[in-house]
Amino acid sequence: MLLKERIQIFIVMKWTAVFFILLCLLTLTAFSKTPRNLLQKQANEQAVKEALVHREKWVTYPLYTDRAGWDRFLGTNRPEIISNGEKYLNYEWQVVTASDYLEFSRSGSRVIMEEPYNKNLNAISSLFLAEMAEGKGRFMDQLINGVFAACEMTSWSLSAHLSIQLKNKRFPDHNQQIIDLVAGDVGSTFSWIYFFLNKEFDKADPLIAQRLKYEIQRRILDPYMNVNHFWWMGFEIRPTQVVNNWNVWCNSNVLQAFALMEEDRDKLAKAVYKTMQSVDLFINYNKDDGACEEGPSYWGHAAGKLYDYLQVLSDITGGKISIFNEPIIKNMGEYISRSYVGNGWVVNFADASAKGGGDAPLIYRFGKAVNSKEMQSFAAYLVQQKKEDLQVTGSRDMFRTLQSIAYNKEISTITPALPASPYTWYPQTEFCYIKNKTYFFAAKGGFNNESHNHNDVGTFSLYVDTIPFFIDAGVGTYTRQTFGSERYNIWTMQSNYHNLPMINGVAQQFGAEYKSRNVSFNAATKKFSLDISGAYNQEAAVKNWQRSYILSEKALTIEDAFDLTAVKEPTSINFLVAAKPAIDKEGIVIIEKNNQKVALHYSNNIFNVFADTITLEDKRLSNVWGSEVYRVRLVVKKPQLKGKYTYTITKAGM
């Protein structure tokens, strides 16, 4: 054999071996990321068809004409619901103008379009509930006026969501109907209205109910079945794209609309199965630990909407298609109870607010479905904290409204309690909560392309006696900038306004590649540790930055062990705090809030200390924190390539 031939054979064998190795690696990778597809494993399209029950069987609420049934169902809620509806008997229906829609592209304001639209939708819901409660036809004409006004709109979607349109992104396109969060809400609520009142509408004129059915068909049912390009469906997802609350929020609404409106069993089965395929993508995206990377105030729109979807799916299939026994579903539910600090405060990573405990009736129903005593007791606790009866008023989420009424009495029989666990560790999402009698500590790892991300890998919050001291500001009022290319120009989205270092003058960067490393949690020592260097780009010149948090009964100790490749400018260790810091004493920063004092101890030999005042002009922020928050900056005096910094936070007197 010639040398040339031997070389050729060798090359072929070499690349064959390389190809085989790559194939094995790809196979292993694919296997390790095998999608759960929990819903599709429950049933295929044919099984869905066989399991479907007629809507008169799965809808357990009384028919409109069953007045005694509605009196029993509403109970003590009936007078309040009627009274709320009476407020809208002379309501002047708002016109959402063309310029209201255009304002979003002009100034970035969403509110100008959303405010009149939401007023109309709240009026419709309130009038509908009032008519169901009273049953005398007194609210019928005004309800028809509202439904008719909505049917005359070119689109049911918000101005901020018109980017879903294939062509024109600035103005509602009469050539195409899109499904966003609000269009879905309207479609599902209008489906409930049609289900209960279509015969009553016929008494006024048959064209009214016909028109309503026609609009639900062309705006919700047909678009859902005829296209796959709505990003929230997940069918045309890009590798770096997240599957967030939009998926289950929209699918929940769509499922209700089909279940209430579609009379063809084959078409209904096909639609239901498509929603199952889409929702599976949301469940697949979420980690086994069940944490909501969007934060507690988004839980109701994410895991909470997943519950709504799964409950409707179970109802319309007579319980034959149900995954409430899956551990991940229970984990997703209990995230909301574990994230509660106390006194109305919650852990608020990402765009979540630090205020609020959650929707008690929703939490209770979810807890009951997954057999979580913790969630049920937490829901009862939230009701107890309000010190008033559960209120039921107009909401464009009609399924939740009706469900809340159904379970109000039951919640009152549950013993209120908060979760007793001293810590909660979410190993896949990399959230860590630790609490004791004095402190509630929360920190996160993760990556900087999570849904509603803030470029905040490694940040923490600390509450002392349920009072917020070291905080995450949250997010201001949503505008075009919030979800556009300028998002990270907003200060609340930047790592240098979180409890993190600005290394060599460089903040963390946006992107899935900017993430934590070497993350660990030791339950025995209550220590959470991670390398945050991967969240910074090359300009930061950081090889390793291992941050560790240790919470004891007396203090939170923070340690930064670092290794830099260059020193460019002094590193700043930033802390965002909820009250004005006093920095007049060397080595100690005193923060006082609600007659409670907390001290941040640092080395005066290593750092210069500065305090910045951040004025909050946005009401969404000032409603939580007041008119100002503050940033403490510990700036290194003599920068070094390698070393260790330690800071301790204590309650005064401990």
Instruction: Show unreliable segments.
Output: 1-32
Major β-sheet, in short?
Answer: 8 strands, antiparallel
What is the general shape?
elongated
Structural class determined from secondary elements: alpha+beta
Which helices and strands occur, and which strands form pairs?
Elements: H1 3-32, H2 38-42, H3 45-51, H4 55-58, H5 67-74, H6 78-86, H7 98-107, H8 111-134, H9 140-151, H10 181-204, H11 206-226, H12 245-261, H13 265-285, H14 296-299, H15 303-316, H16 327-338, E1 340-342, E2 345-346, H17 360-369, H18 373-386, H19 398-411, E3 423-426, E4 431-435, E5 439-444, E6 447-448, E7 460-464, E8 467-470, E9 501-502, E10 511-515, E11 517-522, E12 527-531, E13 542-551, E14 555-564, E15 572-577, E16 581-585, E17 588-593, E18 596-601, E19 607-615, H20 619-625, E20 628-636, E21 642-651
Antiparallel strand pairs: 1-2, 3-4, 4-5, 5-7, 6-10, 7-8, 9-15, 11-12, 12-13, 13-14, 14-21, 15-20, 16-17, 17-18, 18-21, 19-20
Describe the structure.
By secondary structure, the protein is of the alpha+beta class. Helix content is 41%, strand content 18%. The chain has 20 helices and 21 strands. The strands form five sheets. Strands 11-12-13-14-21-18-17-16 form an eight-stranded antiparallel sheet, with no helix packed on it. It has a five-stranded antiparallel sheet with strand order 3-4-5-7-8, with no helix packed on it. Helix 3 (45-51) packs across helix 13 (265-285), helix 10 (181-204) packs parallel to helix 12 (245-261) and helix 17 packs antiparallel against helix 18 (373-386). The longest helix is centred in the N-terminal third of the chain and has 30 residues, at 3-32. The protein is elongated and about 85 Å long. 46% of the residues are buried.
